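re: the backbone from monday

yeah here it is again, tokenized this time
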């Protein structure tokens, strides 16, 4: 089965960026650089590519390209998270024209610089993505810390590397006046992400708030939203279900309204901050994720001084899990053919879209 990370990699895999470009000098973007697509009317929900892993798999099985724009248009969605096909001006113009014709917003995923020598390439991406009409950038910079690391030090090294990368990117974001939303992607708890962004102190670096990810780090979704809302510039909207298993609990994306997330309240909170807040559907149709809070490895990266996870938060999460068993069967895709998974995913996504229109004004 294709993974979320593979889908995001494909979504961000535009042609190789040209190598040598002028370094960042001015503090304001040249007037010739493009502006965000002007969406007409109320902002409608768009989608992240991770919502369409089954569709990706179906296209791959049929040896066909996956057309994200057309797929989302057919679902009557209002935008996409997707990169332009290249830095070629004609291709960018055609890409943007399709989005404008469908009245869609655009969120993109540029590759952040990891060292100073990468900054020029990053600026090339930023200019191309602005010309394509991007309203905001997205970055998912971590995996699942409780799976990826066996001790604190590698996690610390990863987190400090991310901070350095964002610091290198910030002057370019500031120059071109476009915000970067860093997703809470099961890597850092909301308090440490908020503390980092507060210390960074840039209006051009914020959060792509994922409504459900931090449950895996023993946070209530509403607490995560309250902590990160002041920094949020875009969002991945989803509902979640939880259930017990031997080593902890299972975490599943479910159709809107069938889980434990107070969608209406969080959407309202973010719209108070920005009435044009971008919400992209990211209900990933897959087997439940295992959150092994009763294992030693789960706790290997948490540290009372550097990255704490208080026992009271674990207790509150376990209480949440036990008090809220799934009201409906949670999605499972193991054993499905690509065609079956694509059909199953499409049904769940359409259910989410219908709920968003009826109950969330999205």
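seq for it, each position gets an aa:
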């Amino acid at each position: 089965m294709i993974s979320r990370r593979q889908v995001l990699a494909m979504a961000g895999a535009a042609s190789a960026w040209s190598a040598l470009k002028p370094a960042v000098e001015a503090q304001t973007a040249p007037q010739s650089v493009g502006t965000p697509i002007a969406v007409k009317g109320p902002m409608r929900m768009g989608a992240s590519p991770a919502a369409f892993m089954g569709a990706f798999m179906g296209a791959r099985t049929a040896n066909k390209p996956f057309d994200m724009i057309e797929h989302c248009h057919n679902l009557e969605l209002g935008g996409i998270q997707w990169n332009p096909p290249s830095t070629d001006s004609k291709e960018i113009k055609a890409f943007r024209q399709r989005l404008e014709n469908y009245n869609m917003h655009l969120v993109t995923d540029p590759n952040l610089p990891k060292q100073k020598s990468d900054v020029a390439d990053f600026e090339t991406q930023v200019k191309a993505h602005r010309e394509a009409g991007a309203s905001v950038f997205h970055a998912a910079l971590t995996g699942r810390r409780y799976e990826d690391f066996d001790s604190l030090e590698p996690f610390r090294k990863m987190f400090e590397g991310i901070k350095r990368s964002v610091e290198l990117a910030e002057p370019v974001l500031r120059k071109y006046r476009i915000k970067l939303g860093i997703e809470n992607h099961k890597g850092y708890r909301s308090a440490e992400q908020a503390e980092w962004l507060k210390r960074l102190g840039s209006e051009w670096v914020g959060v792509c708030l994922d409504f459900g990810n931090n449950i895996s780090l023993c946070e209530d979704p509403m607490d995560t939203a309250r902590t990160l809302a002041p920094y949020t510039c875009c969002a991945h909207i989803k509902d979640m279900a939880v259930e017990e298993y031997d080593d902890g609990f299972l975490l599943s994306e479910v159709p809107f309204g069938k889980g434990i997330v107070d969608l209406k309240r969080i959407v309202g909170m973010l719209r108070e901050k920005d009435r044009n807040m971008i919400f992209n559907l990211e209900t990933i149709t897959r087997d439940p994720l295992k959150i092994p809070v009763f294992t030693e490895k789960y706790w290997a990266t948490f540290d009372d001084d550097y990255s704490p996870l208080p026992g009271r938060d674990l207790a509150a999460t376990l209480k949440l899990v036990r008090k809220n068993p799934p009201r409906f069967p949670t999605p499972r895709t193991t054993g499905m053919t690509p065609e079956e998974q694509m059909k199953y995913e499409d049904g769940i996504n359409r259910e989410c879209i219908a709920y968003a229109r009826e109950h969330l004004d999205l």
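The first strand starts at residue 46 and ends at 47. The chain has a mean pLDDT of 92.
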